[in-house]
Amino acid sequence: MAEPARSAHKEALALAVCASTIGFALAFAYPAYARIRVLWYYPLEHRWAFELRPSALAMDWYGRVLLALGLGAIAGALAYVVARRLKPSAQALWLWAGWALAASLVAMSLYVYQLARRVPHAEPLPSWYQAK
Amino acid sequence: MRPVATLATQTWLYGSAKLLLVLHAAAAIVLIGASTHHSIITVGYLRGVYKQRLGRIYAATVAVAYAVTFALGSVVYPTYRYHVRGLYLDRHAIWASNLFDIKENFAAFGVPLVLGVLILSRVMQPREERHLLPPYAGLVFLSTAIIWFNTFSGLAITMARSV
Questions:
Q1: Which of A49, A70, B88, B100 is the most exposed place for a label (fewest CB within 10 A)?
Q2: pLDDT band per the 50, 70, 90 thresholds, residue B8
Q3: Predicted structure pTM score
Q4: Does residue B161 form part of some domain?
Q5: Weakest mean pLDDT among A62-76, A80-94, B108-122
Q6: H or E segment to which residue A107 belongs
Q7: Could you tell me if residue B20 is inside a domain?
Q8: Mean pLDDT, residues B91-97
């Protein structure tokens, strides 16, 4: 690869990494902000369901991770294609890096805000359970 | 003696949960060490000291250790969710239950950061391409902060109750 092309490739990669981070953060945070269908895992029933609300003890973390990975990858790929055409300046890269960090920090703060004072509901104790 | 869950309340890999958790912790020890060293190397990049080969090794080590830690944590998670959180933490240690959920979400946010650092570390020449350093350093420092937070949170939670 010639030097200018190699340089454009690296800058496009850097921008794609930032865009992917933004896409991931927004996609991962969105289900915490708005109710949408995600993939739920029922650990006691060993089954998966794509639904809005679970009907029993279930975990949506896997579903949210998969959703965010998918959208993050799409955002990164799109950003790479666009950045190869419009060579980003150093200032643009810094700006995208700032947005990537800001998006991650805001999304993380949303979870801290929602979870720090949560009052969870405990599961009923089964007959075999012995307090340790 | 540890009570044995009935078939109806057994989660996936319930019997191996303790072993998997020890391996998860071992991977986290590698991870916190590698990420801290990588941050120090990155500070060096910003100050004009370029230990690039070491930087690439640490970036790869962090990526592998993160993947292993993340995968093992994901595998133990169903057992934690019912036997630890559902039956105990949600009743007796709500702070630990909430801290765990914050930690698991932070761990997810670390995935694109660690992957991005790995990709950039393979192509970037920090001495010649200083304009790529701010994105790189930002990703490295935030991922290291997440790893430190998660390692110590995990330690505190397992002191409250474990699988």
A1: A70
A2: low
A3: 0.94
A4: no
A5: A80-94
A6: helix A90-116
A7: yes
A8: 97
Cβ neighbours, 10 Å, residue B109 = 23
Q: E strands of A13-98, at which residues? A: 38-42, 47-51
Residue B4 confidence (pLDDT) above 90: no
Of A105, A120, A129, the CB nearest to B97: A120
Interface confidence (ipTM) of the complex: 0.94
Which residue range(s) make up the domain with B18? 14-77+110-152
| Helix, strand, coil distribution of chain B in percent, nearest 5 | 85, 0, 15
Q: Which of B87, B91, B142 sits opposite A104 (nearest CB)?
A: B142
CA distance A76 to chain B (A): 10
Instruction: Report phi then psi at A124, rounded to 5.
Output: -60, 140
Q: Is residue B92, in this structure, part of any structural domain at all? A: no
Q: Do B116 and A108 touch (CB under 8 A)?
A: no
Q: How far is A68 from chain B (nearest CA, A)?
A: 9
* Predicted pLDDT of residue B2: 57
Domain count, chain B: 1
